[in-house]
Design the sequence.
């Protein structure tokens, strides 16, 4: 009887504030707010509409890929191949269009290639029981090499007439907002709904939280895991294609090293490397923080060579604060 | 006798839960002192406070005349207080000796682990406890009962004066528990004081000197066991009288066979298992730990499926290759180990509860979860099982052990199976909830659910089962009808000539006592 009373009383308004305070998003959103206010104050250029819109475009590329990475990490995996898949999708889409395939077919083929790499990663992780690190490290190398094979080290440009609508995707604006940002927001909403409102999302968290229990509850663990690697690779492909559209040319080292930014944004956003935890709101903000930090350091006139030090410190700081929130230091 | 430990007005709260309120009592030197109470009464929390794993909000501990200020379990161990936690905390991939000395390794030159010393000291420690286990063996190869003994051995490294055992027998069969109690009595004889948590009334009355009862975080009474009786203890725990659960004569003969298992074998852990399960029938599966009961259940459920044998459901042979197949056919399995197999500890009570139903496509519209239907279902089960939780959003890992067990059971009932296999359904569950679970199982059986109950708790198997299958070293040793059922019959079948088991070590020690 006392138990029933408690359960009836607790989820009401009383706990709402407590839940807000303890929720992980509150922490990083406030961190972002502090950064934005601070930068607007110390670097007035930061708050200019032009700079803001530029930032919005810039974090969208990494941001789109973080959405897929977050899903992989929620299942307890990791995808190191995203930077290379990004590059491969970029050059192959340009190459297909160069062959006269047209933007729609060219981009679709590039995304299919990306998906195939994701499928390969997923199959290695599930059917061959490899730790995710291994196949995605391999495809990181393979996809980058294939990008080089396609370009032979040259850039691909002039693959479409300058006035093609394709270039609008990365370079254009809608309602005054850069198109890549719009794509990022739309994909975030879709991913957010998938993770929080669907059976599929629930199952991803369950797999990351306890794979054995998930299996014994009848979840199709292998199929679900394969799906997230495919999604991750496709988001990397989308980022690559939008970047080609933005740059109007493709080179083999697009996306080089981006896997690190992507994983960093996911971790800053509160995604646990051990699986079972993470939200789309969190990683969205994580991606924004990373770009605002980079941009802010430039505007503040910081030595560019030191940037990595700041980014690294922020990663450690974010995870540290997250552990404080979870009471990690109290219980152990 | 002199007082060893005084617990003085200890309080401890967690977000949303006041686990302990002003708890005060004494523990006398050289006694075995039981702590009893319902699930979530605060027993484990109190023990963790005493052992330095949790800091109390208020109150004092006086140990041997001195006030204790504990900075952690290591500090407590150095002051003579050791604890064996409710959930095993061993490293399955390390050797027995390494586990025993984890964090307290004998050193050479201050840095290197002295392996030879570690091994010989481990062997000596095991021999002192009278256990015959090779210290070099990988821990994961031991049975749960043996692992439990290793936990105790590990806690003895610091030569404690107060040893805390939090539900050490909940995963042991009665025969296996006897070994543990032999060790506990030896320790008592050598002057060690023991705080002992258990939900098994008989065990407590047979072995302990004192009992302290907690209810809703409050101290209710501390008394000599010779001055009380089980009925009174239950009344103190629950706050009211509790009718014992009676056996009920089954009337199943005319009911249709629901599940039929024919010659099921995996070639290692279970062989040639055949039995029928009728709709509305509750069949018990008894046997010693390691007899292959859980493996057989997993084999029926497709996790992994048995390479040989046939499963017939409703008269039709079925192929079950994975748990999803079994679930779609209407078979559910409540697994033995809630932490490893049953729950996603990092997910909420609610999400755990609905996971099985959701993966059967219930409570959802296409792929979209129907939040209102889901919450109604969750609230219904939380009420029905009286799951003690501040909200359904609470992480299930933060519930007390018995309340976690209720969530696993509810999760599987929410999947609405036609055949339900439950493996140790009431492990760590308190008396009153146990009675409710039995009543619920009977109610479900009356509605036609066929239930297979695997249990190491003999009174439980006897009370709940319409008939009992006994397994011994991977085979069905026999079947006991309702009228013939008794603990002696079960033990005779379970332990008879166990000398030919493929894994002699786990069973041999238990069987000697059990057969006598
Ligand atoms: N770390 C924690 N965070 C939040 N609540 C907790 C935590 N640990 C325990 N609780 C709560 O405190 C209460 C007491 O828990 P405790 O584990 O002491 O119960 P118990 O008497 O050992 O029960 P059981 O017989 O089920 O093991 C429970 O309601 C439990 O949910
Ligand atoms: Mg407990």
Sequence:
């Amino acid at each position: 009887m006392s138990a029933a009373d408690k359960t009836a009383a607790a989820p009401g308004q009383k706990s709402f504030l407590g839940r807000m305070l303890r929720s992980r998003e509150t922490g990083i959103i406030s961190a972002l707010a502090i950064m934005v206010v601070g930068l607007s104050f110390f670097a007035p250029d930061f708050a200019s509409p032009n700079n803001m819109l530029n930032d919005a475009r810039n974090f969208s590329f990494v941001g789109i890929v973080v959405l897929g990475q977050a899903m992989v990490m929620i299942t307890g995996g990791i995808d190191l191949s995203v930077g290379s898949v990004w590059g491969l999708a970029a050059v192959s889409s340009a190459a297909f269009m160069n062959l006269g395939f047209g933007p729609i077919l060219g981009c679709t083929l590039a995304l299919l290639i990306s998906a195939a790499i994701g499928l390969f990663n997923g199959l290695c992780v599930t059917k061959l029981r490899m730790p995710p690190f291994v196949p995605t490290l391999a495809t990181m190398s393979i996809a980058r090499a294939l990008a080089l094979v396609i370009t032979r080290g040259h850039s691909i440009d002039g693959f479409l007439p300058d006035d093609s609508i394709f270039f609008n995707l990365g370079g254009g604006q809608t309602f005054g907002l850069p198109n890549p940002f719009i794509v990022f927001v739309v994909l975030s909403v879709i991913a957010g709904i998938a993770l929080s409102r669907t059976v599929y999302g629930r199952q991803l968290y369950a797999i990351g939280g306890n794979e054995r229990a998930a299996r014994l509850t009848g979840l199709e663990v292998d199929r679900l895991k394969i799906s997230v690697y495919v999604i991750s690779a496709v988001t990397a492909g989308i980022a690559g294609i939008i970047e080609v559209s933005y740059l109007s040319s493709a080179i083999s080292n697009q996306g080089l090293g981006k896997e690190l930014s992507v994983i960093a944004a996911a971790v800053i956003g509160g995604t646990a490397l051990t699986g079972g935890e993470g939200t789309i709101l969190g990683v969205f903000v994580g991606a924004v923080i990373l770009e605002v930090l980079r941009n802010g350091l430039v505007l503040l006139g910081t030595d560019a060579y030191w940037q990595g030090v700041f980014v690294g410190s922020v990663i450690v700081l974010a995870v540290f604060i997250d552990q404080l929130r979870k009471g990690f230091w109290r219980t152990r | 006798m002199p007082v060893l430990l005084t617990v003085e007005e200890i309080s401890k709260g967690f977000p949303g839960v006041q686990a302990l309120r002003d708890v005060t009592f004494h523990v006398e030197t050289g006694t075995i002192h039981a702590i009893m109470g319902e699930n979530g009464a605060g027993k484990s929390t109190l023990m963790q406070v005493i052992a330095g794993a949790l800091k109390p909000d208020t109150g004092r501990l006086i140990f041997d005349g001195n006030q204790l200020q504990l900075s952690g379990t290591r500090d407590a161990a150095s002051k003579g207080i050791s604890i064996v936690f409710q959930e095993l905390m061993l490293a399955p991939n390390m050797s027995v000796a390494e586990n025993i000395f984890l964090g307290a390794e004998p050193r050479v030159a201050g840095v290197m682990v002295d392996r030879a010393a570690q091994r010989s000291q481990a062997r000596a420690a095991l021999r002192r406890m009278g256990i015959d286990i090779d210290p070099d063996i990988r821990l994961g190869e031991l049975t749960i009962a043996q692992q439990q003994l290793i936990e105790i051995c590990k806690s003895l490294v610091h030569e404690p004066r107060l040893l805390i055992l939090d539900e050490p027998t909940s995963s042991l069969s009665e025969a296996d528990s006897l070994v543990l109690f032999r060790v506990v009595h030896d320790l008592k004889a050598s002057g060690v004081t023991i705080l002992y948590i258990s939900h098994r009334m008989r065990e407590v009355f047979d072995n302990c000197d004192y009992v302290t009862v907690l209810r809703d975080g409050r101290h209710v009474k501390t008394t000599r066991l010779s001055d009380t009786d089980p009925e009174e203890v239950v009344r103190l725990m629950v706050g009211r009288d509790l009718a014992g659960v009676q056996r009920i004569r089954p009337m199943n003969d005319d009911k249709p066979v629901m599940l039929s298992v024919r010659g099921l074998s995996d070639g290692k852990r279970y062989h040639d298992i055949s039995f029928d399960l009728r709709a509305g029938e509750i069949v018990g599966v008894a046997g010693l730990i390691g007899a292959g009961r859980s493996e057989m259940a997993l084999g029926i459920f497709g996790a992994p499926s048995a390479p040989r044998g046939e499963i017939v459901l409703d008269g039709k042979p079925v192929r079950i290759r994975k748990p999803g197949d079994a679930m779609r056919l209407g078979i559910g399995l409540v697994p033995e180990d809630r932490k490893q197999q049953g729950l996603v500890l990092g997910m909420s009570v609610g999400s755990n509860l609905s996971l099985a139903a959701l993966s059967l496509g219930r409570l959802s519209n296409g792929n979209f979860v129907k939040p209102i239907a889901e919450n109604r279902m969750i609230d219904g089960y939380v009420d029905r099982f009286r799951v003690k939780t501040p909200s359904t959003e609470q992480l299930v890992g933060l519930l007390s052990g018995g309340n976690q067990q209720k969530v696993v059971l509810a999760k599987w009932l929410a999947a609405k199976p036609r055949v339900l296999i439950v493996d140790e359904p009431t492990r760590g569950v308190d008396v009153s909830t146990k009675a409710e679970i039995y009543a619920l199982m009977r109610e479900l059986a009356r509605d036609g659910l066929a239930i297979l109950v695997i249990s190491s708790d003999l009174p439980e198997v006897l009370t709940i089962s319409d008939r009992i299958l006994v397994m011994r070293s991977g085979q069905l040793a026999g079947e006991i009808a309702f009228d013939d059922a008794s603990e002696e019959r079960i033990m005779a079948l379970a332990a008879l000539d166990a000398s030919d088991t493929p894994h002699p070590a786990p069973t041999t020690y238990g069987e000697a006592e059990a057969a006598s």
Remarks:
- Chain B touches chain A through 47 residues (CB under 8 Å).
- The mean pLDDT of chain B is 88.
